[in-house]
Amino acid sequence: MARVKSGFTRRRRHKAVLKAVKGHRGARRTRYKVAKESLIHGLAYATAHRKLRKRDMRSLWIIRINAAARSNGLTYSRMMRGLKLAGVEVDRKILADLSVREPTAFTSLAETAQEAIAAA
Fold first, then answer.
1. Domain extent for 62
2. How far is CA 83 from CA 11, 69, 73, 80, in A?
3. How many domains are contained in the chain?
4. pTM of the predicted model, to two decimals?
5. Which DSSP state fits 61?
6. How far apart are CA 72 and CA 79, in angstroms?
7. Averaged pLDDT, 69-86
8. From CA 31, how far away is CA 18, in angstroms rounded?
9. Which of 20, 44, 71, 88 has the CA that lies 20 to 30 A from 119?
């Protein structure tokens, strides 16, 4: 049986890896061995940081809601408790968006929360 060399397959594999590490710096984008390692680490970081991004965004939303709630005479925790007592089911992402884009709507929600706390 004839010997098969891996020329075409190897070149295709190398080109795919080097294309994937195009934005990396130095030898990480030109040398195959280093590029392969860089790609493996980069993909691992991407996987881990997809989870972290969700945490970071939730934290940002809470900070924004707290700042807007304090300007309306509430704290974050009292605002969330008041909304829960009032039966308002608006998630943190929407609340944070309202606090930035529609301050009047957020103020009305804050007043609703204050009324619900006073009634409880």
1. 8-119
2. 60, 12, 15, 5
3. 1
4. 0.77
5. H
6. 10
7. 96
8. 8
9. 71
